[in-house]
Design a protein that fits this description.
Elements lengths: L1 H25 L13 E7 L2 E2 L2 E8 L10 E6 L2 E3 L12 E8 L1 E2 L3 H10 L5 H9 L2 E2 L8 H4 L1 E5 L4 E7 L2
Parallel strand pairs: 1-10
Antiparallel strand pairs: 1-2, 1-5, 3-4, 3-6, 6-9, 7-8
């Protein structure tokens, strides 16, 4: 009878310690395991007009950084919000290089193929459409080495305005 109680007590103590440890870990962040992210929003214009649609990317200036991760967002009517791990969660604090990609693709052939045959479209149709895509902003903004766009995310709410030029 005593032999049975000792392992039970040890098991109960182990379970209690494990529960306390998990609660402490959970209190240090969210389910992603990342540090606190801060809201990031802003506007993107080209030739003083809002960029209709596109993508914006914040890339850590130090690619080996262990305290930062890339954050991305969709541009709609010149406005964006960033996501690092969960939708709209913002970005980790620190300096970033910024890229903007905005293209207009004629998907009509792809849509016709999908309507006629189903599926996700033929690779050759997708390749043709991509090759003929019209860039809505100068290509230099697509690469961190040439975009010259910078941003530093700080604690609290962040708002950036990117005015793209030729």
């Amino acid at each position: 009878m005593i032999r049975f109680r000792m392992p039970l007590m040890a098991t109960s103590a182990g379970a209690a310690l494990t529960t306390v440890g998990l609660l402490l870990i959970a209190g240090c962040g969210d389910e992603t395991g990342l540090a606190k992210r801060y809201p990031v929003s802003g506007t993107v214009t080209y030739q003083d007009k809002p960029v209709a649609k596109g993508q914006i990317q914040f890339l850590p200036t130090d690619p080996k950084s262990t305290t930062q991760r890339e954050a991305n967002g969709f541009i709609e009517n010149g406005r964006f919000t960033l996501t690092t791990a969960t939708p709209g969660d913002g970005a980790l604090p620190g300096p970033y290089n910024v890229t903007v990609k905005a293209v207009e693709i004629d998907n009509s052939q792809i849509n016709e193929t999908v309507a006629k045959y189903g599926g996700g479209g033929r690779q050759q149709d997708i390749a043709k459409a991509t090759k003929k895509a019209k860039s809505l902003v100068p290509p230099k903004y697509q690469l961190p080495e040439t975009s010259e766009l910078k941003a530093t995310v700080k604690e609290g709410s962040n708002h950036f305005e990117f005015k793209l030029t030729d």
